[in-house]
Structure formats: C-alpha cells, structure tokens
Amino acid sequence: MICLKNISKTYTLGTTKVQALKNINLTVNAGEFACIMGPSGSGKSTLLNIIGCLDKPDEGEVYIDSVEVTGLARNELADVRAAKIGFIFQSFNLIPVLNVYENIEFPLFIKDEKAKKSEKREWIMKLINEVGLQQQIKHKPDQLSGGQRQRVAIARALVTKPKIVLADEPTTNLDSETAGAIISLMQKLNKEENVTFVFSTHDPSITKYATNIYQLKDGKLAN
Amino acid sequence: MKLAFRNILRHPVKNSLIGIVIILASLVYFFTGTLIQNSRDSWRQFLSTTFLGKYNITAYQNKEKDYTLAAFSLPEEFISTQIIEYLEVNGINYAKRIKAGAAVFNEETGEFAGATVTVLGVDWEEEGKYLTNLFLKKGNYTPAVANWAVVWEELTAGFGWETGDKVTLFLKDIDGFSIPLTFEITGIMANKTGPSLAGVGGIPLFPVIFVAKDYLEGSLGIMPGDVTDLAIWSLHPKEIYLLKNMAKESGYQFFRGEQGFEVIWGVIGFVNFAGGFIKIFILTILAVATLNLNLLGFAERQKEIGTILAIGAKPKWVVLLLLKEMILFSVLAFIFSLFIYLVLVLGASGGIAVQGGLKLALAGNKFYPGLVFSSVLSALAAIVGTMILSSVYPIYLSTRIDPVEVFREDKL
To answer: Between chains, do A98 and B3 touch, taking CB under 8 Å as contact?
Structure first.
C-alpha cells in the first residue's frame, strides 16, 4: 500500500538546516495498523508528510497504492490526497465555524462527490455513530472536549473512504484514558473499514495496539 | 457558500465596520445618481418650457450650441430639408429658428456696449405653444411691428432698456459683413417658475432676444426657409436615435436642452465630479480597510487553510472560497444599504428643500431622492470590484500556504 525507497529529506528551520530523514526504506501493507515511534525531532512528522503527499523527498521514491507520486505536481498530489488519504492531526484542525456533521462532511465537498445527498447523509451518520458523537452532531468544535474533537477528526478522515489514514501524534493533546480510547477506536475502524492506518507517537504505552512498529531515531529507521 | 457565510459571521465587529463603509459608499452612489438625474430633469424641464426645445439641432459647430455664447458668423450650411421633412412627416412638435450673435451698440455714446447677446429669430405664436413657462412681464408681442423684439428681463436690467426703446445690434449677414439692425423692444419676458438667475456667477444666463424670424431672415440675406436651429419637443426613443444619426451625418449638433447652457451643464458636471471625488475617497477607505482585514484574516486562518489544502483541496478551491466570501459579504452589505436608502427615500417622498449651490443645480426645485438603476449597478460593480481587488494580495498569499510549514509552526 505504501512503499518508500531510499527517502532522504532536509528542511530549513530559520537559518538551520535539519536533516530530518536519512535513506528511509519502508513498506506498509494494506490493512496494517502501523505505528511510527520515536522521540520528538526524530523525523516522524516529516515521514508522515511525505507518505501523505504533503511534502516531497529530496531523494528517493514514494509509491502510494502502487502509483509513484514523487514527481507529481501540486494539484495532482492534492487529487491523490483527496482520493486516497485521510488525515488526523495532533491538534485536531477542525473548521471552527462548522458543526460536527459539517466538519465530517467537509472533505466530500472538496472532493465534489456526486453521490446522492441521502447516501452521503447515511454514510456520515454511520461514521458519527461509530465515533459515538450522536448527541453532539450540531455542536461546534469549541463546544467539544479534546477527545470528542479527535473523534470528529477520525470520522472526517474516513468520510471519503480513503485507503490510508495518517495520524500524526493523534493522542498528544489527550489524557491517557482518552488517548487509549482514541487508539482503540482507530483500531476498530481499521478492522471494520479495512483501511490502512499509520500513526506516529512518542508514547510507548499506545504502541501495544499496533500491528507493526517502526522505530525512528535521528532520521533513520531503526527497526 | 455555507462556509463562506459562516466565515463572514466569524468577525462581527470587523465586518460590521467594513459593512458601514460599504453602506456609506452605496449611499453616496445612490444619492449622487439621483441628484444628477434630478438636476438634469429639472433643467431639461425648465429650459424646454422657457426657451429651448427638449432636444435641439443646430447647424453651428463646436461650442456654439451654447446659447450663452453668441456666434458671430452664420454657419456655412443651414439645417437640411431632409431633417425638417422627417419632423413634418412624423408629426413631431418642433420650431424653426435662426440664431445669430450680436454686439450691442450704444447710440448715445457711439460705442459698443462691450456685451454680446443671442438673437433668436422665431415664430412667436408657434413657439408660444411649447414655451409654457415663459410670460410677458411687460409690454407685448406686437407682430404689427416688423422689427419687434422681446427681451429677457435680466438683459433689460443690465442695459437699462425699457419697452418702446429702439436698440441697435450689429450682426453678420450671409456674406460675413457686419451690419447694424435696429429692433424695437415691444415686450419684456421672464420665467413663471424656476430660479431667477440674474447675475449668478457674473454671467447673464439668458442673454436672449426673441425677434421676428422673417425680419431677421430678410435683413441677413438668408433664403426663406433656411434655419440654423431646430427646437424639438416630442420625440420617441427611436426618433431620437434616428435624428441624432441624421444630425451627425450632416455635421450638425444634436443636444438636449440643458446642454445648450454650458453654465448649467457645468453645474451638473460639478455635481458629478464632486460625487465622483467622494466615491473615490470612500472606495479607497473601503479598499484599505478590506486589505487590512483580509491580511489579518490570512494570518488567523493559515492553519485552517493549511488543513483544507492538506485534506485534498487545490489552491483554486481556496481562491474560490475566499472570493465567494468577499462577493457574498459585498452583496449582503449592498442589499442592506439598498434597504436603508429605500427607507430614506420613503421618508423624503415630499422632497427635500435645498439651498445655495444645490438649489442652482436643481433649477430651484426640491430634491426628490429616488433610485437610479444605473447608479445601483455602478455602485454594486464598484463595491464588489473594490472588495475583490483589495483581496487579490491576501488571496495570493493564501494560495502560497504550505501545509507542512503551517503544521510545523503549529507544533513549535
């Protein structure tokens, strides 16, 4: 599903050049619930950004669903993201003026799906039930707890029926109990919807849920 | 559209301030538009019932359609019979005129008075049907006197003329020779309604003397039936179009009543200019305020736009979203200002009495606010255009947002 070959990436932070990834080779198979583990600054986010077609490597090749995306233009990468990838962010990144239902529906607008309104609604309601937010359907993000916001983000990531969901430290802003619940929910959806999940964390306690763990250290894949 | 609408409601205070500027700009457009229309209509009505036609055709060139400027040489060609036949065949109300410039000669001192007047050779009885705002204040129109002259009141005051006086005017005949003609003042005329404009701006606004057309024709050697001007009172839009083209093809000037007085045209032009200046001023404020608001919005919404781009939107989608916000906001504020204006119009349905320069601009009439379709359209175009133009740079910045950079900064 995901294949990275000899990926290296350096980015500039202020005046400093940071070599975030060094010769990474990685394959994630369909249906995996993979965890990228590593301390802060190890290159987890950069790796996820490259897998998510948000960033381009300086060297190497990236294959998503057997298609090489390394040389694609900005708009073509946007199409790949809209069609194949769902994102869950550390700080949720919900649209503040939209309610729970509308936030989940939003990627469908961007994708301009031609599905019937009733079919869309049925699917969105199913996702809302899955993430347990039936009672908060009309709530705006500022009326939700951190855990609830992340549940909205999970449903939003799945609404376009992507093949891959990438979650960059999805539990960092949550307490441990909620963090466990969120990872369990992701794991449940991984099985039920047969979606490949790749999430990053520096918290060893949540790695137990993963089917595969990839350890990053100083931009290199340790295992 | 829903997202665009919600984003507008996001900053109620800032957007209300921009909304107020849009309302002010719209009101300036609406008021200026209706003021110019009032001014034009008032003067058209006044002049077309006092001594000009609603529409006029003159064989004179350039500025000599202006009745305050006396033309001293007769035109090389007179009005063609083709145009006169057209008016006759179509039963259009019109009158033939011979217009000529004259220098006033003072018999007592033996010198020119240093003033020029416009002598209009007319068929008094025919023109009287249409010049309903004109009346003889003193004396009479006396057809028995071949060289009768009916003089504007303001002019008699300036020269100290009285009814019964014989005045000598120098005019150029058909061959270009200056010849003295003596006229007997049989009547002094004035306007029934409208302003007394004597001495406004130091210009005698009506330096006009009506005389017998036949007498002027014979004295200047003009062939019977030849005329320099036509005053027309009834025209359908199609006829206006046709006559305008016929006049243009023959090298004549076709003009509306108020254009026959450069001073009045200047007053209307000034209202237009002043309105335009205020419009530019207020639109500049709108542009600067919108640019600032959008730059602030850009800074605030970087993460949101980064997220939208990350989940699959193309930059074009973001551009459309931001443009929709601008256009929707402009149109909503515009509709609100239209509503406010209509309330004001209803409140002032009896007309607003004005003084000073505005009174002159409105030919002494009250100001009746109304809605001029062209000013509604131009206001909408100017406001939406200004809002879009002032959004170009912030929108450009938004399309340059790199989600990776935004998320990296968010984490830091």
So the answer is: yes
Please answer yes or no on whether A54 and B310 come within 8 Å at the CB atom: yes
The mean predicted confidence, pLDDT, of chain A is 87
Query: Distance of CA A41 to CAs A199, B1, B108, Å?
Result: 16, 40, 109
- Interface contact A173, partner B, CB < 8 A: no
- d(C-alpha B219, C-alpha B224), whole Å: 11
Domain ranges in chain B? Answer: 2-45+264-411, 53-257
Q: What is the token pair recorded at B336?
A: 């609100």
Between helix B403-411 and helix A44-51 the angle, nearest 10°, is: 160
- DSSP H or E run through B310: helix B302-310
> Is the Cβ–Cβ distance between B173 and B221 less than 8 Å?
yes
Determine whether the interchain pair A98/B304 forms a contact, defined as Cβ–Cβ distance below 8 Å. no
Lowest-confidence pick of A7-16, B47-56, B77-86, B379-388: A7-16
* Segment B311-321, tens digit of pLDDT: 889 999 889 98
CB of A111 less than 8 A from some CB of B: yes
Would the CB atoms of B312 and A49 count as touching at under 8 Å?
A: no
**B123-145, pLDDT tens digit by residue?**
998 998 999 999 999 998 888 99
CA distance to partner chain B, nearest, from residue A95 (Å)? 7
**DSSP symbols for B157-195:** HHHT--TT-EEEEEEE-TTS-EEEEEEEEEEEEEESSS-
B411 contacts A45? CB cut-off 8 A: yes
The count of other CB atoms within 10 Å of the CB of residue B262 is 16
User: Closest partner residue to B404 among A55, A83, A111, by Cβ?
Assistant: A55
Task: Give me the sheet containing A196-201, strands edge to edge.
Answer: A85-88, A164-168, A196-201, A33-37, A212-217, A220-221
CA distance A216 to A200: 10
CB-based burial of residue A16 (10 Å sphere; 0-12 exposed, 13-18 middle, 19+ buried)? exposed
